[in-house]
Amino acid sequence: MALQKEELFLKNKNIKPTAMRLLVLQYLFSCEEAVSLNQVEEALPNADKSTIFRSLKTFEEFGVVHSIREATLTKYALCKTCTAEVHTDKHPHFHCNKCDSTICLSHILLPQIQLPEHFKLQEQEYLIHGICDKCNAIA
Ligand SMILES: [Zn+2]
Ligand SMILES: [Zn+2]
Ligand SMILES: [Zn+2]
């Protein structure tokens, strides 16, 4: 069956490979960029939106995807080296104002920010808005 790669991937992350999770993961593997819940829903028209959402939340919990919160939208991108214990993908993201795609800048480190005394960092997100390489090539 065609979903063997996905099944193995989920088992390695200790996630039970349900049919829905396999389909969502298969779609994520086919995406080059971060996708929103709506995009996953459009790609899987027979699936229930709340089931897709639950799959994405499970993936996030077990280090399969990380989420990028944009102003009114959350997108999800596949993790590269994360585990259920810790997300290691602390990289900036780039949002293209023209084509609306969101790209992982995996090779760029987040800037170290010196917080004032008695402030404790819990999460650091870095989202850059601009024009992506593809849109720049057209212009
Ligand atoms: Zn991650
Ligand atoms: Zn673009
Ligand atoms: Zn990312």
Automatic annotation (TrEMBL):
InterPro entries: FUR, WH-like_DNA-bd_sf, WH_DNA-bd_sf
Pfam hit, one: FUR
Source species, domain of life: Bacteria
SUPFAM superfamilies: Winged helix' DNA-binding domain
Protein name: Transcriptional regulator
Annotated source species: Neptunitalea lumnitzerae
